[in-house]
Description:
This protein has helices at about 5-15, 70-80, 90-105, 115-130, 155-160, 170-175, 185-195, 220-230, 250-255, 280-285, 305-320, 325-345, 370-375, 380-390, 415-430, and strands at about 40, 45-50, 55, 110-115, 135-140, 180, 200-205, 235-240, 260-265, 275-280, 350-355, 360-365, 395, 405. By secondary structure, the protein is an alpha/beta fold.
Amino acid sequence: MVGERSKQAFERAQRVLVGGVNSPVRAFRAVGGTPYFADHGEGPYLYDIDGHRYIDYLMSWGPLIWGHAHPNIVRAIAETAARGTSFGVPTELETEMAEEIVELVPSVEKVRMVSSGTEATMSAIRLARAATGRTAIVKCIGCYHGHADSFLVKAGSGVAALGLPDSPGVPASVAERTLTVPYNDADAMEKLFADRGDEIAAVILEPVAGNMGCVLPRPGYLEAVREITRRHGALLIFDEVITGFRVGLGGAQARFGVLPDLTTFGKVIGAGLPVGAYGGRRDLMALVAPEGPVYQAGTLSGNPLAMAAGLTSLRMLKRAAAEGAYERLESYGRRLVEAFCRLASNYGLPATGHAIGGMFGLFFHDGPIVDFETAKACDQALYADFFREMLAEGVAFAPAQLESGFMSMVHGEAEIEKTIEAMERVFPRIAN
Ligand code: PLP
């Protein structure tokens, strides 16, 4: 139950903040009711300002792979901040961060740090357009790549949750340069390229879709898109803002063995501080200023606090990966999905789900869920009931069905068991 203090805080916020929030999904419109306001977090737990404790599967929408306030990350931020918060000249931390990314992500030879996932994706398509001399880009329906004009065309995440058509304010001349196809449909991609291949600068793709719930690529799909883009002289951009360092240490590209030309990052690489990055083939990255003519800059790019937090996180991930940590994350995700499906079936409700690395999706739908059409067909009213009842039990899932759940390295057996026990109490309540 959302408490009185959160309700009052939301009323106060709505007087001065648009919708009371700084990012639309935080307003909980997809599930109704009032958002709980965070007070603090500790490991896998978030405490709201009413003193409720939640097992947190939102994890700030993905960045917190080490949970809340991990002592090593907090210490790295504090020690770095004590020496200055931004300099406007290079620091060695930025190089160290880029070295880690280049070492871990197979296709990335050079990196540019930015301050958000949106900056990363919009910079990557600028670069793709400059490299190919073409202007169209292709994105999949229901994928979300941030809020830059070119991406607010059939977008997932909060855009889909609010049921918004494509956003006003995006000039038609920009939107018409974004071509869309269903996710997981290699034939549609082939056909689009057959018709308009010579206009297309790049395909931008979430290699595992995370913004229409968590939807896995069909076997062979990523390979097919790689082959089609190569054959037509277009670039392939993997948007690994969610999947980077989350579905495995080398991201989705290492896991599926398909190498894009450019990759975008965010979330995990900042460990909860504002950060993003794009990188890829050396020859392409050489087109970016100051090596080349494609302009892109940022006052706070490569910010030392973000670098210190992210570096600490990546180095811990390297050690943890060697001990099977990603497999454990995935097994926890699978257990949640299995319990969800088992209980739903016991109570005659349709359900399916997916788990990969530290992300998972729970759908009230018989499945299979392969694209936005099938994802959208799930029972969103039932999910809203499930979400509210789980919250009352002290478990916080994403406040919209068309979003992913996130597991952290500090979720353990105890949290998984408590979550499943809570589901066992909740299903009889929502089935009636
Ligand atoms: N790309 C993907 C796949 C995302 O999920 C998001 C955000 O959720 C973005 C890009 C945009 O990142 P940011 O919100 O940091 O601008």
